[in-house]
Structures are given as structure tokens and as C-alpha cells.
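WARN retry 2 of 3 for item q-0093 after timeout on previous attempt; input resubmitted unchanged.
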Amino acid sequence: MQADPRTARTRAKLRQALLEECALRPLGEISVAALVRRAGVGRATFYLHYADLEALAVDACADIVREAVDALHAWRGSPDPAVPPPALPAFFESLAPHAGLYRELLRPGGSGPLGHVLHQDLRARSRTERTLAGAPEPDLVASAVAAAFAGVLADWLHGLIEATPTEIAQRVWRLLVNLHRTPLP
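OK item q-0093 returned
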């Protein structure tokens, strides 16, 4: 089914307006009135597409989820535990412009609305890949990988783990490769 191009344009305007507003102030200080004014749409149009600002924020940040999942799976063959795929450090570097918004939606430990979406998408992708490869315990390992990555990402964004983007990419990569290699009974 083809999506209505007007709907796509309106949602894109609202997402862009939110990111611009969040560059100026925290999400909690943004009003729907200011947002729709910036986006050039009516208040009723906003509520036609989103229940509230948090729902819009999660949608606007959904790309981070896709980028994270893709970055973690951007390797072929046997992964080198010492060298993360180049997409992973690039992913961590890309977070800086909207880190404040990500911190609001991804709480320490990996909870929060963005953490839920990240965990769900990463778990599904990991489970699918483990199942296709015939690896043992696809559900268990996929849950562990998703929880570990979401938790480390959130804690790093909140300053609970001190590391540069390159350092955290290397550290989380080693952690996840070891989770995948852990022998299971």
C-alpha cells in the first residue's frame, strides 16, 4: 500500500521542526503551538498525526534506531572482535547534534520510549540473523544483545560511561561479539 505523499510531507515537516526546536531547548520546554508554528501546519494537523510531543520525538528519532541496528550488523563473515565495523563508530559520532533529545527519550539503563523501540528492533534483527545462521539460543542471545547495547548507549549518552565515540564503539563491539560467542548449554 502506497503512503499518501501529503502525510509523508507533513510528518517530515513536524519531525524537522521538532529537531530544530530541540536544538534550542529541551523537549519538556517545547509547546505544540511553537512546534506547529515552526512547521507551518495547524494544531489539528499535529494531533491527526501524533498523540503528543513524545510520540513525535520518538518518530523523529526512529532513524537513530535504524542506524544503530544497521551499524551493529554492518559486517560480513566472521566478525573481528578487535575492530568494529566502520558504521559503528560513525553511528556514535552522529549522535552529538541531538544528544540532548536522545537523553530525554533514552534513559539510563536503556529504558524510555526510544529505548523500547531500540530494544525491540535490535532484538528482532539479532534473533532473525541467529535463527538463519542456525546459532543456538536465538531468543536468549538476541535479548541479551539488545539489552546490553541499549543500556550501554543510554549510559554513555548520560555520561555514566566515559569514552569517546570511537572508544565506546570499540568497547561495545567487543562486548557484543563476546555475547554472541558465549557457549550456551
